[in-house]
Structures are given as structure tokens and as C-alpha cells.
Amino acid sequence: MNIIKIQNLSKTYLIKKLFQSEKNLHALKNINFEIESGKTFGIVGESGCGKSTLAKVLTKLEEKTSGEVFFLEKPFESLSRQAFNESIQMVFQDPYQSLNPRKTAFQIVADPLVIQNKLSREEIHSKVEEMFTKVGLSKDFLSRYPHQFSGGQRQRIGIARALMLKPKILILDEPVSALDVSIQAQVLNLLIDIQKEFQLTYIFISHDLSVMAHMCDTIAVMYLGQIVELGTRDQIINDPIHPYTKMLMASTPDLFKKNQQTIDVLGEIPNPFEITKGCAFYSRCSLKTSQCASHDVFLQLKNNRRVACIMT
Question: DSSP class of residue 223?
């Protein structure tokens, strides 16, 4: 069963600069995908590709420009604020910035329950203690402030806070990128255990394909606001089709196999304001033809996965 479905989702920002004409920045362009309940859906791409914008739209931190988002076949707009908060929560990238330094760990984790105002103080305290134990933190730490914790411990607090309302979907925006490598594996394994216990659906956002290979069932590859390839973990990791996906794989030595086809990538990411038509990857692709620049490219089914490339 699909727990979430996205149809033609777009987000455009109107950029205004002094002495310059207004410009539109298309952060998301016609995003389409579905997520099966209990699975982990990965979104990977370079910085600026639209990953975090998508997360903000899905958590209503940003309003979509157009398109539809359905949760259990119900439009997002039909959900009350309380129902929405009980359905979707988010764990942010930077555990140093996402926690209020003036609140204790107990206050931070208890906040969602306090806002609901349905439980007694004793019930809230009991639930916070229970959640601290589940994320691997001692109850003795409840009265500490964020600066008294390590990065990994702060991220565990962020995870505990996100779980307090028992959501069905957890959006994880680069949850381990700010942590030491030695701590990353611990947090990832914690997330795997929590997913099983709480029967959660994850939307996992990262630029690191190694992490995606460890965590995800399905992976969407994004480039300049568009999904260019969408398939299972094995398809994306072991048999990438789109030239951009191959580039990402080649830049991840521990995943890249010697028998995989290499792809030459030209130049740097283009100015997003200058892309009006054709393939967004056109300026960097060694396989490009004139047709790539003149025709809009959409996801099409190829080799049992969806790819936005007319040359593959």
C-alpha cells in the first residue's frame, strides 16, 4: 500500500535583487513518486538539487507552487494541523542548530506532547523517559542542555523529539552528514531498529550513495530540481542508467565497480536561472545531442525503472 503519493509537484521562488529584474528559480519541477508503507525512500543528489526544498514542502515548512501530495489517498490540504503533525515529522541535518539551546533535553523532547495538551505532567515525563531509553540515552541526561551533549547524542535527541507523536512517516534530511564517521554507523543502525519497532516509513535525504545503499529500498536521483532516475536500490547502485547517476557512482569509490561503464562529465553545475528547456544535464553530458537541448525530458519506464534521458 502506498502511504504517500506525489503528482507533478513543483516549487518556484521569485527572486528579487536590487536594480535587477525579477527571476523565477524552479527549485522543484514536476516531481512524481509513490512510497510504500514501511519502506525507506531515498533522495540523492548534489547540493542545490532540491532535496531539502522537497523535504520542506512535504513538512509544510514551505508551500508548494503546484501539484498534489496525498497521504493515505487524502490530499495534504484535507489534514488538520494536528493530524498532519501526527502523520509526518522531520529529523534535521544539523543537530547543533536544530535544538533550542535554552531548553533542557527533557523540554525539547516533551514539547510535542505539551503542545497537544492532552496528557498530565506525570504521563509526559514517563513517555519522555521511555523514548530516551529507546534512542539509547540515559534518563540521567534529561536535565542537561544541548551544549552538554556530543553531536551523536544531540541527533538522538532530535530523533526522540520527532517520534513523540508516533508519526507514520519520518523525513530524515542528511541525518548523519554532520556527525563523525565513527558515530554515523551507530545512528544509522539506531534508525533501522526504530523503523522496525515503530513500523515507520522513511524519506531519507542524502548526498552520500554509500549511506543510501545501506538504508534505502528505493532511490530517486535528483538534479537541478528534477528526478532523473528512479529505481530500486539494486538498480541504482549496481546498474545505473542515467549519465548523472553514473557520475555519482563513479565518485563513490567503495560502491563503484570496475566493470561498470564510466561516463565523462563536463564542467560545473549550470546557472539554474538559465535552464528553460531541454535536459537539465545537457551542458555536462558527453552523450548529448542537439535533440537533448530542444526537447523537454520526462521520466520514462526503461529497464524496469524510470529514467529521464532520451539517449539511454
Answer: E
* Contact predicate 151/182, CB 8 Å: no
CA distance 186 to 209: 18
Find out whether 203 and 55 touch, Cβ atoms under 8 Å. yes
DSSP string, 150-191: -HHHHHHHHHHHHHTT--SEEEEESTTTTS-HHHHHHHHHHH
Residue type, 57: V
* Domains of the chain listed by start with CATH number: 2-87+167-307 (3.40.50.300)
Angle between helical axes of 105-116 and 151-163 (0-180°, round to 10): 10
Question: Nearest-CA neighbor of 216 among 172, 276, 280, 268?
Answer: 172
Q: Cβ(112)–Cβ(161) under 8 Å?
A: yes
pLDDT at 117: 73
**Low-confidence residues of the chain, pLDDT below 70?**
253-268, 274-276
Q: Are 40 and 217 in contact (CB under 8 A)?
A: yes
DSSP one-letter code for 92: -
In angstroms, the CA 237 to CA 204 distance is 16
Q: pTM here?
A: 0.91
Radius of gyration in angstroms for the set of CA atoms belonging to the chain, rounded to a whole number: 21
Percent helix, strand, coil in the chain, to 5, is 35, 25, 40
Burial class (CB in 10 A: 0-12, 13-18, 19+), 37: middle
C-alpha cell at 274: 538559465
Predicted pLDDT of residue 255 = 66
d(CA 204, CA 214): 11
- DSSP, collapsed to helix, strand or coil, labels residue 82 as helix
Three-state SS annotation for 243-306: HHHHHHHHCCCCCCCCCCCCCCECCCCCCHHHCCCCCCCHHHECCCCHHHHHCCCCCEEECCEE
Q: Beta strands 201-206 and 169-173: pairing type?
A: parallel
